């Protein structure tokens, strides 16, 4: 395992501290390290709280700030934060207008955020993100996993909360943003959890994992490494097959997301390839984002996320945002 | 070699096209792919043009935009752009107030930018960036290499040009910004040039290369992998030893830069470690940046850059910037 760290057990805590120090103009770290909060919260605004296992940076801590999240609760690497963490975070950023918890669809996260919502009491909503089409199977109890589309949902809801939308309105917008968003990814290498010290899965020099999960979970199949164009075609087709309506798709946001160890030069290339593929299917890419945003430690790989836009969603995407990882319009 | 690409030979061109498409609101790509230019240039402003080999993305193309570069000329991977490319770019963004070429100190880049400056004629300045202390030896004819500090120099000069500084003034500010900036990096893995197909250098599972160059050039020594704190200490001490004045260093900008395959979580941790080390040496980190900005394809590694700040330099750093890779205050 080759990583910049002092001790595997201390990595999450030290990384969080370094993050908070680098971006202290935007965020503040709870003294006990339980959550990262927006430096300046606003009274009368619904508080948006998210979180999940660490190892996906900049998700979620890098999306705390004006126009996006009010707080993020990082768990240990690939482990849910505790209900207590979430409740503390929600209390710290309460603006008196209710709170909305944004949760990626994993059993541990669902359970802990649901318990936290109960402890927070009335005026607490939960939005579940399940954008990964790799293992789409509505019959499975667990449902789809939440992956890179979480960024899009947090941006859209963050903008809506910032403009003054109330909790009930956000509770409607959340599922609408989730329904408009689908993702799928591929991995070229495994990731290595620091406290484990060896790769999560083995993969051959000429192989790739299609539909990989953001914790290195198995995808839908293991195949020989394909060209960028073929990968883009496979990902875009899988994503579009799951987005309704299938006809007249119109305008979309395209996010090409890196898994952590894939350099921007390759992601730019994948963006071009995915964009051509979308065009071939009658979609017009009117908003775009490319970079390492929802990562899996040191995994090499990328994912494609497509969000169907209407006028309102496009406006929410364009709204000012000032976080460590996303900044525009301010 | 595991990369997202269609053909090694086409990678640079396709990556550039994808980049320009993703950020078409900020940049425009020359139809022949010779340069990326700012979508909107301003008459009466000194034009800033940089460039160099590809493979360091987002440098330089990701720094084109308001408050930073007017144009960037990407060469093939790790190869200088041609004088013709540079001249075409300079003509395309000419605002009638002269032009300044920002050049990393490598033989090929120096030669081609010098020739381009001659072809551009009077009213053309050149600023040479040589911030790498790894092989510091003023007796060597080649001098220090230009590495991650290039980002800082481009930001400071870009802000000065944007506020209306003339060419003569920028010709003074350039060397001042360069003199205030020093960097050093370490690599945990090699990079792989697509057209070569195998790693540039071999490195053992438990080894790191101290003082590595941004093209995978050998550093000052090969040592067993150290802890993050020890790496930070070594890098900060080398950087500070080369910054004058050594006493009373005061306020600094700290940039912890990733080499391409190192995830943010590790860079955050390194930021904390480098920051503590600077503090121990009497420096106060008053500005910070952490991320993958000056990369070496798929190399895992990081570098530390320190810039001594005075009131003017801090103000130029804070000035609005709107590029693909750096955005704030706008």
- Assembly form of the protein: homodimer
Name the largest protein-protein interface in this structure: A-B, 59 and 59 residues
Strand line-up of the largest beta sheet of chain A: 1-2-4-3-5-6
Percentage of β-strand residues of chain A = 15-25%
Mean pLDDT of chain A: 95
Explain what you see:
- Two copies of one chain form a homodimer.
- By secondary structure, the first copy, chain A, is an alpha/beta fold.
- Chain A is 31% helix and 24% strand.
- The first copy, chain A, contains eight helices and 14 strands.
- The first copy, chain A, has helices at residues 11-22, 83-92, 107-120, 149-162, 167-179, 228-241, 264-280, 311-318; strands at residues 27-29, 36-38, 47-54, 71-77, 99-104, 124-129, 181-187, 207-210, 221-224, 250-258, 283-291, 301-308, 321-322, 327-328.
- Chain A has a six-stranded mixed beta sheet with strand order 1-2-4-3-5-6, with helices on both faces. The first copy, chain A, has a six-stranded mixed beta sheet with strand order 9-8-7-12-10-11, with helices on both faces.
- In chain A, helix 6 crosses helix 7.
- The interface between A and B is large, with 59 and 59 residues.
């Amino acid at each position: 395992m080759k990583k910049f760290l002092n001790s595997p057990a201390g990595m999450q805590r030290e990384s969080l501290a370094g993050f908070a120090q680098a971006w202290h103009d935007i965020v503040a770290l709870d003294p006990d390290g339980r959550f990262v909060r927006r430096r300046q919260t606003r009274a009368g605004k619904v508080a948006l709280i998210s979180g999940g296992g660490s190892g996906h940076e900049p998700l979620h801590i890098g999306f705390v700030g004006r126009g996006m999240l009010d707080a993020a609760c990082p768990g240990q690497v690939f482990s849910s934060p505790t209900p207590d963490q979430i409740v503390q975070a929600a209390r710290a950023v309460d603006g008196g207008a209710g709170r909305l918890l944004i949760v990626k669809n994993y059993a541990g996260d669902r359970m802990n955020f649901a318990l936290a919502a109960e402890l927070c009491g009335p005026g607490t909503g939960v939005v579940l993100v399940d954008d990964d089409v790799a293992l789409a199977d509505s019959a499975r109890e667990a449902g789809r996993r939440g992956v890179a589309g979480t960024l899009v949902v947090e941006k859209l809801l963050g903008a809506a909360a910032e403009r003054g939308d109330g909790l009930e309105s956000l509770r409607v917008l959340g599922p609408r943003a989730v329904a408009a968003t689908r993702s799928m990814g591929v991995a070229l290498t495994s990731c290595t959890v620091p406290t484990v010290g060896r790769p999560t899965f083995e993969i051959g020099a000429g192989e790739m994992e299609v539909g990989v999960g953001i914790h290195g979970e198995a995808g839908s199949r293991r195949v020989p490494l394909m060209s960028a164009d073929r990968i883009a075609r496979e990902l875009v087709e899988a994503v579009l097959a799951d987005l309704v309506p299938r006809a007249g798709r119109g305008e979309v946001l395209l996010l090409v997301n890196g898994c952590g160890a894939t350099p921007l030069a390759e992601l730019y290339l994948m963006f071009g390839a995915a964009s051509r593929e979308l065009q071939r299917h009658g979609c017009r890419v009117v908003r775009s984002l490319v970079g390492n945003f929802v990562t899996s430690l040191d995994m090499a790989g990328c994912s494609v996320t497509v969000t169907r836009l209407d006028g309102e969603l496009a406006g929410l995407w364009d709204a000012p945002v000032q976080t460590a990882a996303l900044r525009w319009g301010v």
